[in-house]
Design a protein that fits this description.
The chain has about 100 residues and is α+β, with helices and mostly antiparallel strands. It has one helix and six strands. Helices cover about 25% and strands about 35% of the residues. The strands form two sheets. A three-stranded antiparallel β-sheet has the order 1-2-3, with no helix packed on it. It starts with a helix and ends with a strand. This is DOMON domain-containing protein. Keywords: Signal.
């Protein structure tokens, strides 16, 4: 489990240039979906990736995809618990 999580973190970091290079910022607003995505790579020497996603309540889930196409990409799917006190973040790999 730990090695797959480490691989996922490495993959996400390696793909961030696609997102940040296109927007030249760590915040992205998608008006069609009324969604905000923020990605932050802390400058404290850690290997952490901080991200924030805000989307309307009527969506059942939100997702962020990393890659240059839908095929062979990593997608993080996020959805709230029934009581809205916690959030599940589930990594998915596309084929």
């Amino acid at each position: 489990m730990a090695s797959s999580l480490l691989w996922l973190m490495f993959y996400l970091i390696s793909q961030l240039h696609l997102v940040l290079g296109q927007t030249n910022a760590s915040n992205v607003f998608i008006p069609e979906a009324n969604t905000i995505i923020s990605i932050n790579l802390p400058d404290d020497g850690s290997n952490d990736i901080n991200f924030y996603v805000s989307s309307p309540d009527w969506y059942q889930y939100s997702a962020i995809g990393f890659g240059s196409s839908m095929a062979n990409s990593v997608i993080l799917v996020m959805y709230p618990s029934a009581d809205r006190k916690s959030v599940t973040v589930s990594p998915r790999f596309t084929k």
